[in-house]
Amino acid sequence: MLFAAVNVGDSVQTGLDSFFGFLPKLVGFLVVLLIGWIIAKVVKGVVTKLLERVGIDRARARSYPHELSGGMRQRVVIAMALALSPPLILMDEPTTALDVVVQREILAQIAELRADLGFSILFITHDLSLMLELCTHIGVLYAGRLAEAAPSRTLTSAPRHPYTQGLLTCFPDVHGPRTRLVGIGGAPPDPRDPPTGCRFHPRCGQSLPACRETSPPLIHLGADHEVACHLCPS
Fold it and tell me: 11, 3 in Cβ contact below 8 A?
C-alpha cells in the first residue's frame, strides 16, 4: 500500500524492513524443522535396528499391537527396554501367557542379547524352572520375605529351606530318574495378616516350635548361600 506522504523508496524500504525483521524468525523456524527432521530420521533408524535385533522385521515398525502375536509383542517390549542401553533390566513375568515353544524362543533371545550387550537382568517369576535356565543367582521369596538366596547350581543341588525344596519337587526333571511329584500343601497367607514367626510354618512339614514364635534371621551358609530357617544352625 502506498501513502501520499511517503515516497516510493521509503515504501519499498518499509517492506524490506518488515521482511528482514521476520527473516530471523523464519530462519529459526526452518532450523527447528530441519533439526526435527534429522531427529526423526535418527530415531527411525534406531527403532528399526532395535526391532531387527529382537527378531522383528523393520516393516513392522508401523504395526499396531493388535496386529502382532503375543511373542512379537514381548519382543517389542524388550526392544523398548533396550532403547537407552540400560545396565540393568527388570523383567517381571516376561513369558506369561506364552506357549512353551514361544517361551523358549523369548528366553533364547534374552540370553543372546545379554551376552551381546552386557546388561544385567532382575528376573521376577513364579516359574522356578525358567529361573534355573536363565539366572546365575536366585532369591526365593515367600509372603514378602527372603527365604533363601544362592547361586542357581547350589539352589538346585543343595536347597536348605523347606519352601525351596517344595518348589523344586513341583516340576519333573526331564534328564533324571522318574520321581513322584509332590506339591506344597495349604495356601499362601494373607499378606495383610501374616502368621507369627516364620511365615511358611503353617505349610511346612518340618516346622519346629520356634518356627511359630520367632521369625528366623537370614544366616550365611557360605559361597553366597543364605537362608532364613530355624532348621539351619547359625
Answer: yes
